[in-house]
Design a protein that fits this description.
Blueprint (H helix, E strand, L loop, with lengths): L1 H16 L1 H5 L5 H25 L4 H27 L20 E6 L12 H6 L1 H9 L5 E6 L6 H21 L7 E5 L12 H7 L1 E6 L1
Parallel strand pairs: 2-3
Antiparallel strand pairs: 1-4, 2-4
């Protein structure tokens, strides 16, 4: 009986130690082979131990051998399973969420569309806004943000003011063309968010712009 209690305690400890390994594997041939070997070894060991203690009855020997064989089979099956049964296939990780859609721009004005160092919108700039005006008229629920930008020449404070004035000039022109002011937000960002290098005149010209972005 003491042998059975010790075996049961050992089995419980083995299950506790190998819990993660058991959960991560599929039960297969290694567990079966380990169980057969463990059961055979357990039964033989129990019979030999009883023979060495005296002259046990047939019933005692049979019970001890069967109990030890079962315990050995369980331990052998667990060890075999933990050692070489195949790992379970892990579920594939969920796909990453799609990136947010890029902001839709319905119009862009460059520095040439304004008078030099000014927020006055030129006639070319007015014509460049016509496509955006047509769409805003077709889609009366559409709202836009007019975003003004400058190149890197000049102080931050000056560029912020200039970009705001140009954004407001575009908003005022859209309102004069019949677009409700409540549908238009004007903001100036100065030299932030350049789209080209400020190291060249061509790049600085690209950065001096006003963009109409759908909200």
């Amino acid at each position: 009986m003491g042998t059975h209690r010790m075996a049961a305690g050992g089995l419980a400890a083995l299950l506790a130690v190998s819990g993660c390994a058991l959960r991560d594997r599929e039960w297969g041939s290694c567990a079966i082979g380990g169980g057969l070997v463990g059961g055979t070894v357990g039964g033989i060991a129990a019979g030999a131990a009883l023979n060495n203690t005296g002259d046990p009855s047939n019933g005692e020997m049979a019970g001890a051998i069967v109990g030890s064989a079962i315990t050995g089979a369980l331990i052998g099956a667990i060890l075999g399973h933990a050692a070489c049964d195949p790992l379970k296939e892990r579920p594939a990780p969920p796909p990453p969420p799609p990136p947010p859609p890029a902001p839709e721009k319905i119009g862009t004005l460059r520095g040439a569309h304004f008078a030099f160092d000014s927020a006055e919108l030129s006639s070319e700039g007015q014509r460049a806004l016509q496509a955006a005006i047509d769409r805003l008229r077709r889609e009366p629920t559409l709202r836009v943000t007019v975003e003004g930008y400058t190149d890197s020449v000049g102080s931050d404070a000056y560029n912020i003011r200039l970009s705001e004035r140009r954004a407001l000039a575009v908003k005022d022109y859209l309102v004069r063309q019949g677009i409700e002011a409540a549908r238009i937000t004007a903001r100036g960002f100065g030299k932030a968010n350049p789209v080209a290098s400020n190291a060249t005149e061509a790049g600085r010209a690209e950065n001096r712009r006003v963009e109409l972005v759908v909200q």
